[in-house]
Amino acid sequence: MNESETAKFKIMPENISFVVTLVHIKFRGYIHTWNAKKKFEIAQEHKERGVTLYKQDRGKDAAYRFVKALKIIHSIPINAETPPDVIDNIPVSDIKKLKANLYNNLASYYLKKGAWQLTIDTCKRVFDYDEDNIKAHYKLAVALIKDRNFERAKNELDIVLAAESDNKAAIEHMKYVKEQLHNAEVKYNLMVKKMFA
């Protein structure tokens, strides 16, 4: 749509229809013409808007903002063989930190939504940029528990508890994981006994 254009929308099955007129559009130019600084700033704006939306319990809208920010920030070319320390006055470490935060926020949405495999995959992306991210290790552990992968969940919880020994949620999850691993071992031993009895 362009400014002053009108569009009619219809939402089914509620049978709601309405007319929208685009009053103003903020055109920032084409992304391929933006320098790294502008891309970083716009990605940061999308991240902040996404966090606000997430706090308002609008997870799907927040996820859209996080993904949009990731697309923008990933369009900054970084030489993989000889990465620079700074691009357009933006430290590459800040770019990596923003990517880690965006993936971490997206993992929060997937975890809340109950999309365990997406949570697992997204947490792994966090580790590409920040391997010591405790929040991501915790989210990964919870998703692995829900996916019934207790051995890997225990490994993740060990990392969380090594960094935050008083993390009550991680302690509770660890008790549950150890109980599940113990039960699995008991069942396995009984099965082996029956096979060779």
From TrEMBL:
<dbReference type="InterPro" id="IPR050754">
    <property type="entry name" value="FKBP4/5/8-like"/>
</dbReference>
<dbReference type="InterPro" id="IPR019734">
    <property type="entry name" value="TPR_rpt"/>
</dbReference>
<protein>
    <submittedName>
        <fullName>Uncharacterized protein</fullName>
    </submittedName>
</protein>
<dbReference type="Pfam" id="PF14559">
    <property type="entry name" value="TPR_19"/>
</dbReference>
<dbReference type="InterPro" id="IPR011990">
    <property type="entry name" value="TPR-like_helical_dom_sf"/>
</dbReference>
